[in-house]
Amino acid sequence: MLDGDDEREVLWGAMAAIVATGPFTAEAAYAVHHGLARRCPPRRAAASAVGLPGSAAAREPATDPTGEAPAEAAAAEKAAADRLDRRIDALDGRSRHLHEPGGPWERAIALRYRDHCLGYLVVRSMTTPSVEETALTDLLAQQTGIALVRLTGRRGESDHAGPESVPGTGGDVLVTGGSAPTAGLGAVISALASQLAVHDALSRAAVSGRGEAGVLQVLCDHTGFAALTEDRFGNPRAWAGPGWCQPPRKPPGGPGAGPESRRRDALMDRARRRPGAVRDRNRLVAPIEMAGDLLGAVALVDPDRRAGQADTSTLEQAALVLAPQLSHERRLAELEPHLRRDLVDRLISGEATDDVFAQAASLGHDLRRRHRVAVLEWAGTAERAALGDAVARAAGRLRWEVLGGSRGETTVVLIAREDRRDPGRELHRAVSDELGTATGAIGVGGHCDVFTDLPHSYNEAVRALTVRRRSRDPYGSTGFEELGLCRMMGTGDGEREADRFVHEWLGRLLHYDARHHTELVTTLSHYLESGGSYDATSEALLIHRSTVRYRLQRIREITGHDLGNVETRLNLHVATRIRNVLDTPLPR
Questions:
Q1: Which of 88, 135, 313, 354 has the least CB density, counted as fewest CB within 10 Å?
Q2: Which of 329, 132, 331 lies closest to 238 in space, CA to CA?
Q3: What is the DSSP string of 45-73?
Q4: What is the pTM of this model?
């Protein structure tokens, strides 16, 4: 490639190198002059090397008895070439994927030098190339841009003649107005070998399991500068090298947060428009992006501005290697909540099969332990996701193993606990601390020894939550075991039937109390709870015994019920119990 006499030779030399690195086949090569992309067909030897149409084998097309197939194939090939030419003309000087859903993998690789795009190489693959193969094509494209610049004498910053150093060579090799001096070839080869060694070290670090820390350590070792990564908002993620000091985080909306955020956004926009690292005060910063999506940044700490082109090139290679890692991490972060919700929904709906054990294990949850289902609703929580996040943080503080999801407007949590105590009160306190408000309700179902019992526990939790929300104290936690007679209410039709039962036996008293501000229902409840004791009722209500007798007489008159009848007393007792648990609305 470096020995090429013209652009075509350099382009197809680079194409042959890329085809040799992975599962690629050559599609086309373009040279860019004055912003216009011009297709450069290969010479015969180059076409044969990369297996393009036009090679010796391809120049002898199969003949068809009718003579129509070759003509149709030629027309289709010309139409495809014209369509590719138009797509290349529409590119913005950056590498772009060209494949369509269901079609073979295809990519236009931009050959750039600083702010200029010098050409494109278009390659295809029947399989999706690996991260390492794609990164190596980008590195080869970078070196091809250098070779084109050396050949043509094109300037990276301006168009006037004059010497300029080539990136990645430490300033030892110059580009002049004519062809490059032969004396600099050894330095270029040495620089390329150094860059390949750096890329190899970065790739090995990326697959070593050490994550960002491993890549940053390689970056620090090869440049001598401290290195760090930041998320897309500028928050530090990882650091390698001396002098680490956790910067103070500014409160959201605090003084200076807006201008600083805008300054960093402008910096990242500039870095993404102009490929490569940019200077940001005492640092060199390279954006980490994948498919046009900004994932974060990697930086070298260089307050004395000692970093050279080789250090900048290493930083840019680190950004390429980190991009798949951060992209994979983001996809997992986006996908995991969906997987958890789907798994929880299958478990509580009774649709789960034995494969849920493996699915739960992949999410870090042991489904073979004893579980209870809890359902939560919180007033003042704008988004259900916020409540789910608060529950996850609260469970982490309590050191509970939970699996969270949702159903309708409620948040559903599967709590793995061998302890038979009701976890609702602890969970309510912890979530209240996380959200800063206790205006929430939790219903907790019974224990499940096997996952097939989870739908039953979920129904119990929903019933307990319904009772809690309709009680006179709607905030807090209620376990199914606490419901007593209300267990039989159920929800939906069962709940409405409970209301009708209360209205049938207590409706007149409820209306009388509402109109006259009396407490006949309360008096009746205490009287029945005490087993019909005048003394216990008067003591509980702090009223005279004769007042109890008077109120009971009024109850008989208003309702027409005989309190001496055993069946009547039982029905009234059940109705007052339900009334005490549920805030039953008055009948119309």
A1: 354
A2: 329
A3: HHHHHHT-TTSTTTTSPPP-TTS-HHHHH
A4: 0.46
Cβ partners under 8 Å of residue 147, min gap 6: 1, 2, 4, 10, 14
335-372 CB burial, b ≥16 within 10 A, e <16? eebeebbebbebbbeeebeeebeebbeeeebebeeebb
d(CA 97, CA 475) in angstroms, rounded, equals: 54
| Cβ neighbourhood burial of 577 (10 Å; 0-12, 13-18, 19+) | middle
With 50 as the cut, is the pLDDT of residue 161 above it?
no
Q: Which residue has the tokens 């870090």?
A: 364
Q: Report whether 469 contacts 441 (CB < 8 A).
A: yes
Highest mean pLDDT among 136-145, 151-160, 200-209: 136-145
Per-position DSSP letters for 167-178, written without gaps between them: TTTTT-SEE-SS
Give the closest residue to 427 by CA, choosing from 480, 479, 473, 486: 479
pLDDT in tens, 58-76: 444 444 544 556 777 778 8
Neighbour count for residue 27 (Cβ, 10 Å): 21
What are the pLDDT digits (tens) for 98-137? 888 778 899 999 988 767 788 899 999 988 888 778 878 8
Residue type at position 53 = P
Q: Are 226 and 240 in contact (CB under 8 A)?
A: yes
Torsion of CA 12, 13, 18, 21, to 10 degrees: 140
Distance CA(474)–CA(468), nearest Å, equals 5
Whether 411 has a pLDDT exceeding 90, the answer reads: yes
Residue 238 is predicted with a pLDDT of 86
What is the C-alpha to C-alpha distance for residues 156 and 44, in angstroms, rounded to an integer?
32
Distance (Å, rounded) from C-alpha 169 to C-alpha 190? Answer: 8
Q: What residues pair up with 108 in beta bridges, in sequence order?
A: 96, 122
Q: Give residue-wise pLDDT tens across range 507-543.
A: 899 999 999 999 999 999 899 988 889 999 999 899 9
- Count of other CB atoms within 10 angstroms of residue 557: 9
Region 239-258: what's the mean pLDDT? Answer: 56
Of 225 and 71, the one with more pLDDT: 225
Query: pLDDT tens-digit profile of 457-478?
Result: 999 899 889 888 877 788 999 8
Count CB neighbours of 21 within 10 A. Answer: 15
Other residues' Cβ atoms within 10 Å of the Cβ of residue 507: 16
Centroid of chain to Cα 323: 15
Sign of CA dihedral 493, 495, 496, 498: positive
Q: How far apart are CA 443 and CA 478, in angstroms?
A: 5
* HEC-encoded secondary structure of 419-483: CCCCCHHHHHHHHHHHHCCCCEEEEEEEEECCHHHHHHHHHHHHHHHHHHHHCCCCCEEEEHHHC
Range 564-567, long-range pairs (CB < 8 A, 24+ positions): none
Reading the block at residue 48, the tokens are 């044969």
- Give dist(CA 96, CA 84) in Å, integer: 13
Rg (CA), the chain: 37
